[in-house]
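chain and backbone:
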Amino acid sequence: MTMHAKSHRAVKTLTIIALVLLYLFAAAGLACIPAGRAGRRRFLTGNASFFARRALAVLGIRVMKRSRRRTADTALIVSNHLSSVDILVIASVRPAVFITSVELRNSFPLGLLAFLGGSIFVERRNPSGLRKEIRDIARTLAEGTSVVLFPEGTTFDGRTVRPFKSSLFTAAVDAGTMIQPCCIRYRRINGKRIGPENADAVYYHGGTTFAAHAPRLLGLRSVHVELITLDAIAPADGRSRKELAELCHERILRAYHRT
């Protein structure tokens, strides 16, 4: 790495650290506002959306938005999952609560960042706890706040979209809220088409740790990512949660592999 590249990464690192500190300070203040549960979540998701746009700009990540005709203002947003950047990409476009794992809650600094963004932490391996978490997600949707679900359960290597877990789709059915499939596709890194030789600079999967992933991301000059908002699905069409998950997967998979 050249001295210029090292200097550029150092400046980006310091700027991101400053943004994170400002985000934490603002979120901590907003969390103290006596606006009720729904009001606080709106403040926290709006704050996260504001800082997500600034973080993407610093990182050199450009989001290209594409949308189909039938979209929903409040929805269970369902997306494929490739990178930690996915959260910034979606949050930059629309304020929303993210569903994430209880393991993340106990990791620093990601757990704190997620908590102060209003995230809902779930433990899929605990059926009794999962029922409570589904009620929490359904209530959040019913209050008018969109919720983001990555139903693959974790990030993968970008070769395809893995099958979706269906349990949390129950929340949209219970709340009577639309389901909004979205497809994320990373297209270019430093001006070159994404491929096996450069994909791991952005993709975050396998045994990769955040400590190893972050420096790679900060060393990039530019990333182009496509966010495709597909037709929304009404849960009242009589489909089961498994059928809804399969329909979302089918649409996202088709969009992901479209040239």
Remarks:
- Residues 3-257 form a domain with the Glycerol-3-phosphate (1)-acyltransferase fold (CATH 3.40.1130).
- The beta strands are 61-67, 75-79, 97-101, 120-122, 147-149, 178-189, 192-193, 223-229.
- The chain is about 45% helix and 15% strand.
- Residues 233 and 247 are 9 Å apart (CA to CA).
